[in-house]
Amino acid sequence: MKVPPDLVPQKVVADDLCVSLATLWRARRSNLPGFPAPVILRNMVFWRKADLGKLEDALMQFAGRGTFEQERQRSKRIAVLAKARSQPKRIKRARRPDERQRDLF
C-alpha cells in the first residue's frame, strides 16, 4: 500500500513531539478541544502534515496519564451505577410448605 505524501505515520509523529505512542493514544481518547482527528488506513494511524502544529498545541493542554485514568475510572463507575439503578431488585418469593420439589425418578 502506498501512503500519500501528506500523511505522517504515528510513530514518526510521536518521535517528533517527544512523546510515547501511549501518550498519543490517551490524548486522542481524552476529547481535547482542538485535537485533530487522525487518518486511519488499514489499521495504521497517520496524521496530516498540516495538522502537526494543532496536534502539538493540543498535547500541551493534555494533563497526562493520571487525569486520563481518573476520568476513565469515573466514567466506568457511573456506567456501573446507572446499570444497577436500572435493574429492579428481585424479590424472593417465600415457599409454601406444600411446594416441595418432587422427585424426578
Give a verbal description of the structure.
There is one protein chain. With 105 residues, this protein is mainly alpha-helical. The chain has a domain of 67 residues. 47% of the residues lie in helices and 10% in strands. It has 4 helices and 3 strands, in the order E-H-H-E-E-H-H. Strands 1-3-2 form a 3-stranded antiparallel beta sheet. The radius of gyration is 25 Å and the shape is elongated.
Summarize the model shown.
This protein is mostly helical. The chain is 47% helix and 10% strand. The chain has a domain at 7-73.
Oligomer: single chain
What is the approximate shape? Answer: elongated
| Number of distinct helices | 4
Which structural class matches the secondary elements? mainly alpha
Indicate the mean pLDDT: 84
Can you tell me the residue ranges where pLDDT is under 50 for at least 5 consecutive residues?
none
Q: Approximately how much helix is present in the residues?
A: 40-55%
SSE ordering: EHHEEHH
Largest sheet: 3 strands, antiparallel
Task: Give the arrangement of secondary structure elements.
Layout: E1 7-9, H1 10-17, H2 21-29, E2 39-41, E3 44-48, H3 52-61, H4 65-86
Antiparallel strand pairs: 1-3, 2-3
